[in-house]
Amino acid sequence: MNTNFKPKVLVAFYSRNSSTERLARAIAEGATGEGAEVRLRRAREVISPAAMAQVPGWTERAEQMNARYEAPTEADADWADAIVLGTPTRFGAISSELKAYIDGLGGLWFQGKLNGKVGSVFGATSSLHGGNESTLLSMYTPMAHLGLIIVPLGYADPAMFKAGTPYGATHVSKLDTLEPDADHLDVARFQGRRVATVARALRGGLPEAAAA
Questions:
Q1: Model confidence, pTM
Q2: Which of 10, 19, 81, 182 has the fewest CB atoms lying closer than 10 Å?
Q3: 120, 150 in Cβ contact below 8 A?
């Protein structure tokens, strides 16, 4: 393994009320600390402005986050050695915003350009037992179709015995009254480190053209 290899990590997420955003930033911190180059991207809304206006603050928060993060692109996924996807749960499953991004990767899938890249997932819910684990497990399915090598967290770090799930970092905001605490952010940082470490091990030993 080339220990000097600098893995490229894409963290693509959707967040409406910042819980998933905070986990995404902690994952990026962990990956960066492990020597990775990170692109942090927020998926864009796919519903109408009129529908967004029915939820107080949604439009304003979306504008603020979109000013902070570029939208994820097909080129970002092509660039990355590892793709980490994050979403709030929507009725026990992935948000339509992040799913739309995944669905847009069909061209890369057809060319086989995603085969062998690392894949990992994280998410947040508003309510206790609101679908965190079912959402993360459901995200493994498109990752398998894309040819990603799925990297769960297991219990490979002491942080995992305090928060999160073995499938990925999570948070419960309790109707957006709680931000991710130190324990949950520690899990997210561990996820970033783990993804970067595995990507280095898998991709760092490849010939330069194959790892690009």
A1: 0.93
A2: 182
A3: yes
Mean pLDDT across 109-116: 97
Nearest to 3 by CA among 29, 35, 32: 35
Between CA 99 and CA 106 the distance in angstroms is 12
128 pLDDT higher than 90: no
- Going by the DSSP 8-state scheme, the letter that residue 69 receives in this structure is S
The tokens of 97 are what? 């915003």
* Neighbour count for residue 30 (Cβ, 10 Å): 26
Say how far apart CA 37 and CA 40 lie, in whole Å: 10
Domain 8-207: assigned CATH number: 3.40.50.360
- Percentage helix, strand, coil, to 5, in the chain? 45, 15, 35
Instruction: Give me the chain's average pLDDT, please.
Output: 94
pLDDT band at 206, cuts 50/70/90?
low
Q: Which pLDDT tens digit goes with each residue over 57-72?
A: 999 999 999 999 999 9
Alpha carbons 189 and 9: distance in angstroms, whole number:
13
Q: Is 137 left (phi over 0), alpha (psi -120 to 50) or beta?
A: alpha
